[in-house]
Each structure stands twice: as C-alpha cells, then as structure tokens.
Design a protein that fits this description.
By secondary structure, this protein is an alpha+beta fold. It is built from 16 helices and 27 strands.
Length: 726
C-alpha cells in the first residue's frame, strides 16, 4: 500500500456520501401501496392470503413464499411499480409473468388498476416493505438517489478486497493483507446486495444472490479476526485466536446443516452476531494494549469509533426510530475499511523504516567487519611469512649437520609445549617421532602437532622444516595449513598443523568407482594442486595417502592435501628450486623412516602397498612414492615439475573413477627399465567427456602433453553433479 492509497479512498468515500445525501429530495409524486399480503404455497390460493404489515417473513419447510399488492389507477404516461421483496425471482403484472433474474424490480404497468403478484423461492428471510408506484422515470431517479452510492461503495470495497487478498497470498506477504482483503470482500458484497434495486444488475437468480449474501456474512468476521491477529497479535490467553477457530468450526457446521436441509442460515445469524461482537471487543482490547508501542493502534481505535457513530442511524432505524431515508452501514463499513487500510499502511511504513535503519546499522557493522577482516588477512599473511622464514632458517641450520632432539618417542597428556600448547592425546607414532592432538592455550583450539625425536640426520631434519615452509607459503581450503613451527635449540623440533577430523583417501578405496563422489573429491584435490602450482610449489608425492577427507560445510566431504616434506619450492624453469640433498648418483632405494599416517593428521606414506616396492621419499636422487611417480622422474628428482604432479593426479583420478590402476605396470619401473607404458582403458561413460579427456591426457608419457591443474579444475567444476555444484 502506497502513501497515496488512503487519501484517495477517503475522498471517494466523501463523494459517495454526498451522493447519498441527495436522496433527501421530495417523493410527493410517489404512492406507497398496501397492505401487502402473503402466503406459503406451491401455487397461491385466494382464501389463504394474510396481511403482512412490516413483518420479516422467513422460510417454512421449503415452501414458496408469495406476495401480492393492489395497484390503483395511476396518472401519467409511464406508470410503474417498485417491488421491495428481497430475492424475488418472478412477478405477474396485468396477468403477464416477468422473470426478475438479471432485471430490476421496477416493473412498467401496462394497465391500472391491477394486481401485482410476486414469487420468492429463495430460502431467505424476507423483509416485507410496501411497494411504491408512480412514474417509472421518477422511480429510477429515486433508486439512483438512494442506492447508487452504497452500491458503488460495495463494488469498490469488493474489488479492493480482492486485490488485497491476492496480494496477501503471495509468498512473504503480510498476513494483515489477507485478513483485510477477506473483510473488504465480505462487507463489499453485503453492501452491494443490500442495494435492493441495483443488485439485480447481476444476471443470477434470487437464490444465488441469497447464498452470496450469506457467504459474505460468514467470511467478513473471519477476515476481521485474521486482520487483527496479523496486525496486533493475540493476548496472553489467545482468546481471539481460539475464538476464530471456534467460529470457523461453527460456520462450517452451519453450512453443512443448511445444505442438508437441517438448519436454515437465518437461524444461525444470532450466534454469528455474538461472534462478531466478541471479535470487536477483543480487537479493542488488543489495540488498546498495543497503542503505547504501535501508533497505528490509534488509527484502528478511531476506525471502530467511526464505525459505531456512522452506523448509529441504521441501529436506531432497526429499533423503530427513522433518522435518515437511506442506509448508513455501507458508509460506516467504508470508514472502518479506510481506517484498516491506514493501519496496514502505517505499519508497513514503520516496518520499512525499521528495515532501512537495520540495513544501515548492518552496513556499518559489515564495514567494520570487512576492515577487521582485512587486518586479519594482513596479519595472517605476515604470520605465514614469519612461519615460512623460521622454517627456512631452521632447515638451513639443520642442513649444516646433525641435530639432537628429545629422545622420548611420545609426549605425556597434559604436557606443555613451549608454554603455548597442551598435549591432549597421541594420534600416532613412528621411528622419527609422533603426532599428537594439542590444545592451543590462547583460544582452546585443537591442532595436530608433529614432533621429531631421537637422533636424526641433517636431511631428515631439513625435510621436516621444509614441510612447514611449504605449507605456510600457500593458503587454500584444500591444503593442510601449518600454523606454527618451533623447537630449534629447545630440544624439541615440531610443527603445528590444523587438525582435520577425517581419514586418508587411501582408506576409502571401497568407494572408488562412485563417479559423482569421485568428481566432488577430485575437484577439491585439483584445486589444492592448482594453489600449490600458482605459488611455485611442486608437491612431488601426490597419492591417496596424502589426501585427508573430512567433514566440510553443510555435511559435505572436504579433501585436503597434506605432507609437503619432499615438495620443491620454485619451479624448475625458474632455477630457484631448493632440493633436500642426498647421495650423488643413482642410489639404490632404501626405506626411509617416516612419521605415522594417522586419522586427523597428514603424514607421508613411505611404502607402496600395491607395487610391493620400498618408498623413495627422501633417499638418493629419486623422491616420491613409486606407484604415483611420473616416468620423467627416472632421470632424478630435479626433473619434477607441475606436469609430474599432474601425472600423479591423473593416476589418482583414474583410480577414483574406476577403482583400479591405470597401468598394468608401475610407470616409474617401466621407465627405469626402458619400457613403454601400457595402454590405458577408457573411463566409464558416467565421467563427463571433457574431464575424461583431460584425465587421459594427464597420463601421457610426455610432460608437455599434459594439461595444467587450472585446465583440469575448470572441466571438473563444469562436470560436477548438481548437488555439489549448488
């Protein structure tokens, strides 16, 4: 509702009221006929007529109700009679039958004097008023003077109610619109039908008009109560809500009994009136309680007062005191409807102003949060830089000679590390050290702490520190993050990583072959590889054992790449890659001690359970896990490049999609023996064609034929299932 809606309605109502007041013109040239006689019968019987002066006659066992009146001789060229029986459907004038459906009840008189016979088959309580005779032109003038304004008001209210009701049915619309629309439709229909002459412009029978009138009488109290509930809520005891439910139940039962012929709706008007009075009183109470916090409550109370004042003449008329020659109830309803519209408009404006204020406040808070986030991002970037620098310095220092660290293989629960971390429990243990779950004392967050123990050589210590340097240099949701490193000079060499509640992808081989699941995980792994390559890092040991799968947002699985112990910082083409040195020449593969691979933590697998070959993680020139090493790595670790990672990623992708290795022979062993790689079988048809093509290209022997991680990621994101892509 816009601001201009209320004044327009008020002006229109004032104009209609002015038209109605013109009904006070002279009626000296019209003759009131009488007395009116009536009887119940299928066909009228002369001896059965009874005089009905000013009575209200109702149905009697479904019998037809007949009226008749005698018309004297009338002067003038256009004599006519105006009938007043509600819902009449036929009349006989000068012996000729006239169907009243769709016609006015002003009937021309071809002869006078005559007798007018009226038939009423509607099952309705009918007010018997004396017909009026006179000039047809004067009768029409009288009808327009007395009924045009209330009839127009009724039609306007009905249309406005329909529009508001439809607006209230939209998702998210205010409840008050629905109730107000139902109220206006009900009151508008009643006001239109109470225009006794003009209501017959509707081309339907009196029975249909009666049903419409009674249905409107049932609906408008429901709309009123629903409007009040949507506007002011309900009281502590929920009286109005319970009363509304009781009335709906009563109305439903009354209509069922009426349709089955057991009860007439006229009989149920007294309970309906009691419900209306109860609703009105409860609405006054609720509005009075809300007036201190809701200024629109005053408008509502004013509307109720205006309703009572404007309808007072009709109330007095019902008590036998004729005050005005026309009905005031339509104007009372119009006044009250305008007040209800004003209430909705005022509350809507208040809600809009509140929403705008909240939006401004929220925008200010968001600006503060964005500024804080920028500061936090800057601090995090600086922290990562510091961790990487400390790790590099530690690696350089350890590379100069051996380092002795704590001889203990594990820490005790509750033990403090550098006064910052409290040990919670042991996650896993190996020859070089152990992994513990720890709590950071500053914020009680849980992390995974990898600590070395025993006597280690310089290469192992440098590789340990290099893992922290690499992990701290790259930020991605799909990489395990290192948050701290320490221990140089303290006897405890450790690094602290985010704690991931999950399992290595290696342990989920039973799910390999599930293409939608594989697509969802593979794009995450590829995104992590893309982030590494963008930072100039080559992982050199991509395999299912170095990918953790845990719980992400909205219950989805989240994949994170871990273990950067043998990663290369700086692309080979840059000439800045730093290697962990080993023995010169092609040394034989030997087992290298490793930290354990445990749930919730990333650690390097040192053996290949499928190839049956020992790991080459950090010994000699060859580095990595044989089953996932690219053929060019047979020339040594310095041949590692982003394309080498893509080969390992392609092997993982093939296994994820099919559940089996891509090659019959481990590629690195075939390259060392000088044999060509075996042919690769096609991927399942469920794999998107673009993804399948890039995965097969990543398995090429020539590194320059393989795609980049960015290219594979784009294809994977386009081919993700709709569930994952939402």
């Amino acid at each position: 509702m816009g601001r201009g809606a209320q004044p327009g309605v008020v002006r229109c109502g004032l104009w209609l009221a002015f038209l109605a007041l013109s009904a006070c013109t002279s009626q000296a040239d019209l003759i009131e006929l009488g007395p009116v006689e009536y009887q119940w019968a299928e066909e009228p019987v002369e001896a059965a007529w009874q005089v009905a002066p000013g009575l209200e006659l109702g149905p009697r066992g479904g019998e037809v109700l007949w009226f008749r009146v005698q018309v004297p001789a009338l002067p003038g060229p256009d004599p006519a009679v105006q009938l007043s029986a509600l819902f009449a459907d036929a009349a006989w004038v000068c012996g000729q039958k006239t169907e009243l459906r769709g016609h006015t009840q002003i009937l021309p008189l071809p002869c006078t004097p005559t007798q007018v016979l009226i038939r009423n088959t509607a099952d309705a309580r009918t007010a018997v008023r004396r017909p009026v005779a006179g000039s047809e032109q004067r009768l029409w003038t009288r009808v327009l003077e007395t009924e045009l304004a209330p009839f127009t008001v009724g039609v306007m209210m009905t249309l406005a109610g329909l529009l508001l009701g439809l607006a209230g049915l939209r998702p998210g619309a205010e409840r008050a619109y629905r109730g107000l629309g139902l109220f206006l439709v009900g009151i508008g229909v009643i006001a239109s039908l109470n225009a006794r002459q003009l209501r017959h412009v509707f081309p339907v029978s009196g029975s249909v008009l009666f049903v419409a009138h009674e249905l409107a009488t049932t609906l408008y109290p429901i709309g009123f109560a629903d409007f009040v509930l949507g506007t002011f809520g309900d009281g502590r005891w929920r009286v109005l809500r319970r009363g509304l439910r009781l009335f709906v139940l009563y109305a439903a039962v009354a209509w069922v009994l009426h349709l089955t012929g057991l009860l007439h709706l006229n009989t149920g008007r007294a309970p309906t009136a009691l419900f209306i009075v109860a609703f009105l009183l409860q609405a006054v109470v609720l509005a009075a309680q809300a007036r201190k916090t809701d200024p629109s409550a005053w408008l509502f109370l004013f509307g109720i007062g205006a309703l009572l004042v404007v309808s007072l003449p009709d109330i007095l008329d019902g008590a036998g005191f004729k005050v005005l020659p026309f009905q005031t109830v339509p104007y009372a309803a119009l006044t009250f409807g305008a007040a209800m519209v004003a209430v909705v408009e005022r509350q809507h404006r208040q809600a809009r102003e509140t929403a705008q204020a909240s939006a401004r406040e929220l925008a200010a808070k968001l600006a503060v949060l964005e500024e804080r986030n920028r500061e936090i991002d800057a601090l995090n970037q600086e922290l990562r830089h510091q961790i990487a620098e400390r790790s590099r310095q530690m690696a350089d220092a350890l590379q100069q000679g051996s380092a002795t660290v704590s001889e203990r293989q594990a820490l005790e629960a509750g033990e403090l590390i550098d006064g910052r971390y409290r040990v919670l429990r042991l996650l896993g243990q190996g020859a070089m050290g152990a992994v513990h779950a720890v709590e950071r004392l500053s914020d009680a967050r849980t992390f995974a702490l990898k600590i070395m123990s025993g006597r280690i050589d310089s290469d192992a210590g440098a590789r340990f520190a290099r893992e922290a340097e690499i992990a701290a240099s790259v930020a991605s949701e799909h990489l395990v993050t290192v948050v701290d490193v320490g221990g140089q000079g303290s006897g405890r060499l450790y690094l602290v990583m985010e704690y991931v509640e999950g399992r290595p992808l290696e342990d989920l081989r039973s799910r390999f072959g599930d293409v939608p699941w594989a697509l969802e995980l593979l794009w995450q792994i590829t995104d992590g590889v893309r982030a590494l390559h963008a930072a100039g890092v080559v992982h050199r040991d991509l395999k299912p054992g170095n990918v953790l799968v845990g719980a992400g947002a909205e219950g989805r699985e989240l994949a994170k790449i871990s273990d950067f112990g043998i990663s290369r910082l700086g692309a080979p083409s840059e000439g800045t890659g730093r290697e962990v040195p080993g023995a010169a020449g092609m040394a034989r593969p030997v087992d290298s001690p490793a930290l354990p691979d445990v749930q919730g933590h990333a650690a390097t697998h040192m053996t290949d359970p499928r190839a049956g070959a020992p790991g080459l993680t950090a010994t000699g020139v060859l580095m990595g896990t044989p089953a996932y090493m690219a053929p060019e790595l047979a020339n040594g670790a310095r041949s590692a490049s982003p394309a080498s990672d893509l080969f390992a990623l392609g092997l993982m992708a093939y296994e994820l999609f099919t559940g089996r290795p891509a090659h019959a022979e481990t590629p690195i062993f075939a390259a060392l023996s000088g044999r060509k790689l075996s042919a690769v079988a096609p991927l399942p048809p469920e794999v998107p064609q673009a993804v399948a093509g890039l995965v097969l290209r990543s398995l090429s022997e020539r590194p320059d034929a393989r795609p980049t991680a960015e290219q594979l990621l784009e294809a994977l994101l386009a081919g993700r299932p709709s569930r994952a892509g939402a």
